[in-house]
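My current task is to audit a protein record that another person submitted. Please read both lines and tell me whether the tokens look consistent with the sequence. Do not assume that whoever made the record got everything right. I have pasted the whole thing underneath without changing anything:

===
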Amino acid sequence: MPDLSTKSELEKLHWEIAALTGRIRSVELERDSWRARCDRLTDQRDREREKSRSLRDSGSYRLGKALVSLVRNPLRTSPRLVRALVRRLRPAAGGAPAVPKQGVDPKAAKRLPAHLYVAIGLDHDALRDLVVTINQRLLVTPDHRPVVLTDDPSFSLLRKLGVLIEYLPDRATWERHRPGRAWDDLLAERLAQLCRDHSTGRTVVVDRLNPPSLAELLR
């Protein structure tokens, strides 16, 4: 019969490999996202170039050039041309220039990095103790946003503790209802999705037989 500590180490190694796979898939998704963004920026650049060419060919652009010429050489410009330019530049009735609204760009607000805690296999009481310990850790050093991934179906009872909890069906339940799809693949995809959605900076694999203490989380 295998030693319990050895079995625990093997399970932890399994979760760490799954977490690494999820991180790799997250990086691949981010790479594809940047490629798509570059394509969009290229299309936007081409559209702006076309707008610029259209603007140079427009009457408004020629009017602007005439106005610049007027400012630079006022003595060589006739009063009739001045009146025509003023009429073209006068705003329509009730059409006062709009003042752009000012505000704080929400993207400029600095957000704390997210840490993903993979707590697979913990029973409800152990999961609750882990969430409480994470909260205590944040009271000491509030340096990240915790996201806990669990397979405990009663996880919703812990939402009031203030930690974001994500759910993944346990292996036995998944294989009973979806035997045609490997649970390991589901885990890797879920980890990748969470890493991408929350921009996680660190992944912590929790040993179900030996959950981390407050001192260990503070290291």
